[in-house]
Design goal:
homodimer; alpha/beta; Aspartate Aminotransferase, domain 1; Aspartate Aminotransferase, domain 2; 2 domains; three-stranded antiparallel β-sheet; 41% helix
Chain lengths: 425, 425
Amino acid sequence: MTELRQVSQSELAQLHTQLTVQYSDYKARNLKLDMTRGKPAANQLDLANDLNVVLAANEYTAQDGTDVRNYGGLDGLPEIRALLGEVIGASPSSVIVGGNSSLQIMHDTIVRALLHGVPGGSGPWLAQKSKFLCPVPGYDRHFAICQHHGIEMINVPMNAEGPDLGVIEPLVAGDSSIKGIWCVPKYSNPTGITYSNAVVERLSRMQTAAPDFRIFWDNAYVVHDLYDSTSPLLNILETCKQTGNENRPLVFVSTSKISFAGGGIAAMASSPVNVADAKKHLSFQTIGPDKLNQLRHSRFFRNLAGIKVHMQKHASIIRPKFEAVVSIFERELGGLGISRWTNPRGGYFVSLDTEPGCASQVVKYADEAGVKLTAAGATFPYGKDPDDCNIRIAPTLPPLEQVELAMQIVALCVKLASIERLLKR
Amino acid sequence: MTELRQVSQSELAQLHTQLTVQYSDYKARNLKLDMTRGKPAANQLDLANDLNVVLAANEYTAQDGTDVRNYGGLDGLPEIRALLGEVIGASPSSVIVGGNSSLQIMHDTIVRALLHGVPGGSGPWLAQKSKFLCPVPGYDRHFAICQHHGIEMINVPMNAEGPDLGVIEPLVAGDSSIKGIWCVPKYSNPTGITYSNAVVERLSRMQTAAPDFRIFWDNAYVVHDLYDSTSPLLNILETCKQTGNENRPLVFVSTSKISFAGGGIAAMASSPVNVADAKKHLSFQTIGPDKLNQLRHSRFFRNLAGIKVHMQKHASIIRPKFEAVVSIFERELGGLGISRWTNPRGGYFVSLDTEPGCASQVVKYADEAGVKLTAAGATFPYGKDPDDCNIRIAPTLPPLEQVELAMQIVALCVKLASIERLLKR
């Protein structure tokens, strides 16, 4: 395939005319395809339907004898702390299990820090013009929390091994108002990469001017392999303990994309000091989480092996969708030199990079042809992709044939927008 | 019965000696009775056991077609908004249904106001040295939220009709930093009184210096009648609308003491402006609540009538416990002129007032005889009862015979402490 930049202007114009005909055909079909949402498909959710019936009417007693129907148990049932601890490599005592949303735990952790500070710090983050590092592209809801609460965000480029430590290290060493970093360390949202050992080690070891610097380690895709092999990730709780920074990492996890997206179990894990601090604050916020749902999850999955078997069933359903995205991009866009895309081994997204300045046009064209894509820029703080090149593709929710059709249209839109840009040279 | 204050010192001393013998007998029994916790008893929780099995494995579709297993639905399923709206007298669209804890919704509402302010206000409450009015005695966890977040609390006396408006009106009219008031308007915690129409109307109508004054209306015991008749309560959403203050009330409710204390459903209701504001903030905090549990509750209770039938079953279980408390106090303490207690028609508590300066001694004596009572002062901001006279009794959790035994001991402790005080005259 010839790279488009090497094609003459007249040939490009001719190609553009052909593609415009195809595009008009798609438009005429009045399609409605939605590729925006990182949601499980209904047949993935079906895998956990027995959660609804795993407890008999008279089953409400936890391992330690707790009546799960009643108040109490601020940090969650022992068996569910053990289960989620096993998932993320944390001891049960270092895990706090909350409600159904890890986003809420992260949000509330930020809010607590804003109002009260964190252990080892010098008071409320609100009073310190706090800043956060944001590896980009990243998860829009992380960035939205910071923006909503007035925490300034600093972009950090992601590379194949994770966030660029060459950028991070001098920043955190020189500015005590930089209080944290958002990380999705495994099958990152949206690029799908898993942080290398070197990256995890440098994050654990680096000198920070802020004594209360925190790594928000959103391990949302910890068991979300698309293939039989996994991408290994160092245990940041352990690496930070080894480097004497055990209060640095805050690990978040949920079963949202394991059991039910809207009815799962979420948790946080950290050092004894951070866990004690979080429990103190939580004691003012609630009398305790929904322990019935915790018991359901414990009975349904039993242990990490049970979760892994379950995740293989998920993979069987969604792997073909990911492979369809990648194979259509390869077929339609391969060798043209106008885009790059990820071929993830896990997680929920494919990340597509156009040439600079094309992404929003692609999203617009796709929308006009009935394919809804995540807004260009959404994967960047403040919704601003400085290069206007990144597009997040979420292939799990729609049926395979819709994914295929949508990706053909997206590929066409990438070609159209890229050619138009080349024609303006 | 002769009032003890009219008994001679020598007779009092003799009586004290007799009572001390009784007290020593109780002590020798090494009892362990806990009257501190406003928790439902196991047989109350049993009433809702079918919540565990009300959904079949393939039941996950809400009335509007929503797949409740997946993400979304920030304000809750339509049917559960309708159900809880019916309970508190609010239209479904003015209800936001969250997780399992109304305390958490209240806490988060305070936190949002601290960080971002509320509609109609002049910015974050944090920057305005905000104060709250606290009718006393009241709910310790309300007060704890304020104390934890540095909101100054001002005591307001409760009388038989609710909080004393003669105290409240000049305070709120004269101080724009007074931003809110905590209210448990029906079967109040701990006094059991229900606010009169006049109190609700004056709260709705009163002039407040703060344009963003909010009534935190914790309607925790809205359907928690002990008898067939209920104590009517005006609908504050309506009265405030009539007085042109529709943004003033924030109504909170939960099924914690209807279904499962640890696995219920909680909600907030307010004006369109407040609901829109809360939803905007919530959208940064979570993708949505656990809708499966909402669907369970909707299927199990169906409507307000279903809830009322269910609450009659609760009443049958706990009414004898309340009646035991009151009848033992009447038998042991009646006419002695050393204490007053409530005879609630609903709710979860009996409130006992000793003579000033006696409550902590009563709690101490009871504790030493194996009866754990809520700490004296707990029903007041900062844990400080200025008169040291109020004790909250929570009779629901222990079995009836334990309640009876505990109350006999408490009555004895009241007598002991009171006589000791009289002997010091």
